[in-house]
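Hello, quick one for you while I still have it in my head. My current little project is about how a certain protein chain folds up. You're getting the sequence in one-letter code plus the fold written as tokens. Would you mind checking whether the tokens look sensible for this chain? Here's the protein in full, and shout if anything looks odd to you:
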Amino acid sequence: MPYTPELIEELNTLTRFDLATSQQGIKVHKTASAAVISATQRLHAKGLLTQADGGYLTGLGRDAAEHAQAVLAILSTESKTDAMV
């Protein structure tokens, strides 16, 4: 199953969380793009966020955010092949 635009926006939302602390959440304002608002609402419905407009990560949400941020870090790293070119 390939990533859909909706899943990509959910992953982007998860990467906005600071995993160094559990005391910091996010707040998605009504002026945010419709895609960001929808992604945040879907993450809440899936049990990953405490509030429909952001809030804090749940336990499952923290696990998902850790994985999303790890994948982003891996894919954002220059490969050894690219460095040789």
Observations:
- The chain has a mean pLDDT of 93.
